[in-house]
Every structure is written in structure tokens, then in C-alpha cells.
Write a structure and sequence with these properties.
Keywords: DNA-binding, Transcription, Transcription regulation. With 689 residues, the chain is of the alpha/beta class. Helix 5 links the parallel strand 6 (116-120) and strand 7.
């Protein structure tokens, strides 16, 4: 099946609010141009050897880590995001770190801070840029940066930052403010401060970067920089598509604007978003078009809005709200789904401060327009209350859905984790746990050691059971995901979105988990659990491989034990052979030492031989017995007495002088035994009888 053209996106992690925002921006562009998106977690250098998805990809977009991109994209266009060290060959899209990072530090200085610490991950080029700007601004204000107040976390997360920040607290808070290179690290700093009994901003002011959702809900709310990851992604995707078409693209970096958001964590008493809500229209417009422009400007700020934008060209949610207001002004009855209107707005921007400003703009225009009508005040208030309550309901519903989604993820993670403690084989190949997630199609593919460069499609999952891909079939790494898989993903969503997450453990590269879903936004939210899924799958595969190895070793050991038992039995049988010497006479030559177990065996052999052969005499040849002690002598006497009970006599053959002397010294009475010095003498004497 022919595959539609696709853009490849490579990121060190597909998890996190920023990265998923970049992916959503890429998808927005690809929808317009009918391209698939194949997102791969890793770095370009990881794809050089396995050539993953090479047959599908027409251009690459790489973010943060460009290592290996020159080799991977030898004859292919590529665009990089936040990777200024990728080289001049690749167009570069960057957030405007300079403007907003500078604003953050200067804002703290305006609050009276001169002792300012910095927390970041210096493996990230954006964060190194922010640190450089931090140092520059301090020096411009005659403040010498203190290296002792700089923390390189080496990670992006709250937990790692919290623990990395404790040593600075232990040394005493001899600084008064902290610039964190992202919001997660800022939250980690705030967690450490709260644990040690400090308050923000009273004891320490804290600012972040990114304006992640969590920034609105910290206590106090976090002053930060609002990035535009969607715009980063869409610009990069547009550039990649132009390169595919052979159009020239400037090598001058494209800087995407960022916005300082002042909240209480820096010491500000009020929230200020910096959003300008005044109309940008240079000409006389209908009030509905002007309101649509203002609301559109707030919703998409700082993306410039077309000054000729009309109501009909605005966001669907904004359009519905204004149309409801128009109907009220003109005394017309129009049914408006306020919840759907606000949902269309929130899917673009769910920041609480943006929504607050958006409603204020709408309410101010509504009051102005409705004041010119004959509507009584209570009806105007009721109209605004309906709009405001609908906004609150929509926000709460969104939060409830997020909680429900987290419950689903928890259940899926638990089900997958149970694979690690289950003794059932081949469970990892089953993707039934995907049923708990908003994923419609998935494939677990494992590298086949017998066919280098090929993946074995170990398990296929589709929510409706419609997948035509056969589990157990093979696919070249360069052709993965299979064209049929991409086609099914495309049927679910026009962008053909598929994510590929390598399943790698410390000892082995097992394969890839690929999945797609129609509701891209929900799928992107669930990418935050990909690390967990991938690590659990890897651990489960490691567990299965270890179990298989142990099973094989158990079989080897079991076979060795069986062979040992058989050998022991043979040795015992050879150590106590039963030889019919003459009619009615049995010879049992004994070699080696005689312990309790062997004495029992000799007794059983003698008695069974007497019974089966109807023997009247038994010759026990002890020539080969190395030592006769009390135990051996007693055993021989017991054998003789047992034989006598069956009517046979026992004779000892090969009694050497040293053995005779040993028997005498032990005081053992051998009156009931006949003895012969050797076997020849025994045979001769019995022949004469």
C-alpha cells in the first residue's frame, strides 16, 4: 500500500506540556497540507543505524538535540527547533529567550532584589541562553553573579530540582530571589522552600519560564514567561513543507515572541498578563467585528491579528458568544450552546488569566451594547451570569476530564505493571491494557535478532478490532510503521498522527511502541505517561527474557540431575553385580567402600538373587573392598543372617591377612561365615562338593 508523505518529528522526550504543545502546532500545519506526522522519541543519531521510518519521511523536524542530524538527513530537508548548534544548513526556529528572560531578571531587580540565584538544566541550549542573559542583566546593573547560587539540576523535573536545591537552603538563604529556567524547576524550588518552612515571596521570590498549566495553581501563583510552543511547531512544519516543495527558506533564525506573566510569586500583588485589549482597527467597524478582534487578540496574544478580521472569521467560540450578544441586543431569540462556545475557546488557550481577561472584554462590551437597549438590569445581569457560569462549568468539566484521564492512566499503568509480577508467559505481547486509554490503534514491534534490520510485529491493538495487520509478521525498520498502520491512523484523523517510543533498557534495545488516535489532543496529553509505559514494557520484556533464560538453564540442570541419577544408579549396579557362577551359586564381587546405603543395596541384591535364582550359596568377594571396619563387618553379618533365613549360606572370598587381622581386632565373631582366600579356591572346593 502506498504511503502518504509524512514529516518526522524527533524529540528527546515526547512527554511534557511544552513538547506536546510543539507537536500540536506541527499537526495544525500538517492538517492544512495533508501530511502525516510520525513522532519519534530519541535523537537523530539513534535513527541512523535502524533507519526507522526512513521510507515514509520526506523531511525531519528536530527539537533540542540535533546530534546525528547531518548523517540522518544527508539527502533530506530538515528544520530544527531550539537547537542553535545544529549548523547553518538547517533553518532554525527559536523562542525569544532574550526579551523575556531579561524582563524576568530586571523585574526582580525592580522589586529590590540584588542577590538572585539561578536554577536550570545546562544540558539544554535554551536554558543555557537564559542563564547567559541572567548573567548579562546582573552585570549591566553592576551586580556580580555568584557561582555559589547557580544550580545545574541536569534535569527538568520538580523532584530532581527540589533535592538539588536543598544544599542552598542548608547554607542559609543568603540570596532573596531565584530565576528558574522552567516552571517545573520553579515548582521544585517552591516545594523545597515549603518543606523547610520558608514562604514565597516573603522569604524568597521565585520566577519561572514556559507558563505551564501548573504555574496558575501554585501557592502563590507563579510569575513566569509564556512561551508559544504551538507557534514554534507550526512555523517549523511550514518551513519543512516549503523545503520539500523546493522553495528557498531563510537561514536566519526565526524567533517566536514570548510574554512575561506577572503573578504573586515575584512579589506582585495583582496578576498582569501584559495583554493589550484595545482595538487595533484603524477604520470604523461594526461593534461585533471590533469585539471579535479584541477577543481574538486576547485569545491568541501575542500572535498579531489581521486588522481586517471580521466576526465570521474569528474563533468559533468567540463567534457564538458575540452572536448570542447580537441576538440579545436586537431582541431576537437565538439558541446558543454556551458550553460548546467556551470549549472551542479553551481548546485554544486554557490559561485562567487569559480566560479572565477574555470574559472581562466580553462583559464590558455586553454592558456597553445592552445599556443602549430597553432591557432591564436584571435581564442584562442574567445574560452575563449565564455566560460566566458557562465558562466556569466548562473549566470544571475540563478539569474533571483531566482527572478521569489520570484515573485511566493509573489503571492502565497498574495493569501493565502487573506484567512484571505475573508468571504467565507472553503477556507483554498483548496490548489489552490500551483499552483503558484514548488510543485507537497501537503496535508493539520487536527487533528480530535472526533478521537484522527487521522488526517483528509482536502485538497489534485496535479499539474496534478492525486492524488488518497480522501479528507475527515482519517489517523493515525503514518501513515502520507499516503503511497499513499509517492508513488506519489517517482514517481516524486526517493528519495521520503516529507516535513511536523506543522500548529500551540498560542492556537491550527491544523495539518500538507505536500508536495513534483520532482525538489528537487527548492522545498528546497521554504522552506524558509514555516514559512509564515504555519503561514498564522494557522491564517486562527483560523479565520475560530472564525467565526464558532461567527456564532453559533449569532444563539443562534438570537434564544434568537426571543424568547424574542414572549414572549413580549405573555405578551402584556396577558396584554390586550379580553373577550366576555355578548352579545354585551366586557371585557378588564388591569394590570400594561400603556405606549404609550400599550395604542396603547389597542386601537387596543378595536376597533378590537367592529368590530369583533359587541359590543355596552366595560368594561375597571383598577383594576389592579397601577397608573392613565395624560397620562393614556388621553389614556382612547382617547379609549372612538374612540369606540364612532364605535357606542359603554366605561365604566371604578374598579375605586378606590385613582384613583378617582387622576383623579379629574388632572382636567380630565370624563363625557363621565360610571364608576363602580367593575365588579360585572357593570354586575348587565347591566343585568337589
Amino acid at each position: 500500500m502506498a504511503s502518504r508523505q509524512a514529516i518526522g518529528f524527533i524529540a528527546p522526550s515526547l512527554a511534557g506540556e511544552f513538547m506536546t504543545g510543539v507537536m500540536e502546532g506541527i499537526l495544525q500545519s500538517l492538517r492544512k497540507h495533508q501530511y502525516d506526522l510520525i513522532a519519534v522519541q530519541g535523537a537523530p543519531q539513534h535513527l541512523i543505524n535502524n533507519q526507522l521510518a526512513k521510507q515514509h519521511i520526506k523531511a525531519w523536524i528536530v527539537i533540542i538535540d540535533p546530534a546525528g542530524l547531518n548523517e540522518l538527513a544527508t539527502n533530506m530537508p530538515a528544520v530544527v527547533i531550539s537547537a542553535p548548534n545544529a549548523g547553518e544548513r538547517f533553518p532554525l526556529v527559536m523562542p525569544d529567550n532574550n526579551q523575556s528572560a531579561r524582563a524576568m531578571v530586571e523585574h526582580l531587580i525592580e522589586h529590590g532584589h540584588s542577590k538572585i540565584a539561578f536554577v536550570g538544566n545546562f544540558n539544554n541550549s535554551d536554558m543555557r541562553d537564559r542563564y547567559s542573559i541572567y548573567c548579562d542583566v546582573l552585570k549591566e546593573h553592576k551586580i556580580t553573579p555568584n557561582p555559589a547560587w547557580v544550580v545545574d539540576v541536569g534535569d527538568y523535573t520538580e523532584g530532581r530540582t527540589e533535592h538539588a536545591f536543598y544544599p542552598l537552603i542548608a547554607n542559609g538563604l543568603n540570596f532573596s530571589a531565584v530565576v528558574a529556567a522552567n516552571d517545573q524547576q520553579a515548582v521544585g524550588v517552591m516545594m523545597a522552600l515549603e518543606t523547610k518552612g520558608y514562604r514565597v515571596p516573603h522569604d524568597l521570590a521565585v520566577v519561572g519560564f514556559d507558563d505551564a498549566n501548573i504555574a496558575q495553581y501554585t501557592n502563590p501563583p507563579l510569575t513566569t514567561v509564556r512561551q508559544q510552543p504551538q507557534l514554534l511547531g507550526s512555523i517549523a512544519a511550514d518551513s519543512a513543507i516549503e523545503l520539500i516543495a523546493g522553495k528557498p527558506v531563510s537561514n536566519t533564525p526565526i524567533y517566536v515572541p514570548t510574554i512575561p506573566i506577572w503573578r504573586q510569586s515575584c512579589g506582585c500583588k495583582d496578576v498582569y498578563t501584559g495583554i493589550n485589549t484595545s482595538t487595533v482597527a484603524p477604520k470604523q467597524q461594526h461593534w461585533a467585528d471590533q469585539l471579535a478582534q479584541r477577543m481574538q487578540q486576547v485569545l491568541y496574544y501575542p500572535v498579531p491579528i489581521d486588522p481586517n478580521l471580521s466576526l465570521n472569521e474569528s474563533n468559533q467560540g468567540i463567534r457564538s458568544l458575540i452572536q448570542a450578544l447580537q441576538a440579545k441586543v436586537e431582541a431576537q431569540k437565538v439558541e446558543v450552546d454556551y458550553l460548546a462556545a467556551w470549549y472551542a475557546i479553551i481548546t485554544v488557550n486554557s490559561k485562567s488569566d487569559t480566560l479572565s481577561v477574555l470574559y472581562q472584554v466580553f462583559a464590558a462590551a455586553a454592558n456597553q451594547q445592552l445599556a443602549q437597549t430597553d432591557l432591564p438590569a436584571d435581564q442584562i445581569n442574567a445574560f452575563l451570569a449565564t455566560a460566566h457560569t458557562s465558562l466556569l462549568h466548562t473549566v470544571l468539566e475540563l478539569q474533571r476530564n483531566e482527572i478521569t484521564g489520570l484515573d485511566r492512566l493509573l489503571a492502565a499503568n497498574h495493569e501493565l505493571s502487573m506484567l512484571l509480577v505475573s508468571n504467565q508467559k507472553q503477556q507483554t505481547g498483548k496490548l489489552a491494557w490500551m483499552q483503558r486509554l484514548p488510543v485507537s490503534i497501537a503496535c508493539l514491534a520487536l527487533w528480530d535478532e535472526q533478521k537484522p534490520g527487521f522488526l517483528r510485529l509482536a502485538s497489534i491493538y485496535s479499539k474496534d478490532g478492525s486492524s488488518t495487520i497480522k501479528a507475527g509478521s515482519h517489517c523493515r525498520g525503514s518501513e515502520f510503521p507499516p503503511a497499513e498502520f499509517l492508513e488506519q491512523a489517517r482514517q481516524l484523523n486526517s493528519s495521520g498522527y503516529v507516535a513511536c517510543v523506543p522500548i529500551v533498557t540498560a542492556s537491550h534495545d527491544w523495539g518500538i511502541l507505536a500508536f495513534g488516535h483520532a482525538d489528537v489532543q487527548k492522545t498528546i496529553a497521554d504522552i506524558n505517561s509514555l516514559y512509564i509505559w515504555a519503561s514498564i514494557l522494557g522491564s517486562s520484556l527483560e523479565h520475560e527474557a530472564l525467565e526464558s533464560t532461567l527456564d532453559a538453564e533449569r532444563e539443562v540442570l534438570r537434564g544434568a540431575v537426571d543424568r547424574e541419577h542414572a549414572l549413580s544408579k549405573t555405578i551402584l549396579e556396577l558396584g554390586c553385580p550379580l553373577i550366576p557362577l555355578l548352579p545354585g551359586v551366586l557371585l557378588i564381587p564388591l569394590i570400594g567402600s561400603i556405606n549404609t546405603e550400599r550395604a542396603q543395596q547389597i542386601t537387596e541384591t543378595v536376597l533378590n538373587g537367592i529368590n530369583e535364582q533359587q541359590a543355596s550359596r552366595v560368594l561375597l568377594d571383598i577383594t576389592g573392598v579397601s577397608m573392613v571396619d565395624t560397620h562393614v563387618a556388621s553389614s556382612l553379618m547382617q547379609i549372612a543372617r538374612a540369606a540364612m533365613l532364605l535357606g542359603a549360606k554366605v561365604a566371604l572370598v578374598g579375605v586378606r591377612p590385613d582384613i583378617a587381622q582387622s576383623i579379629v581386632s574388632l572382636g567380630i565373631n565370624l563363625n557363621t561365615l565360610i571364608t576363602y582366600p580367593n575365588l579360585r579356591t572357593a570354586i575348587q572346593q565347591m566343585a568337589m562338593v
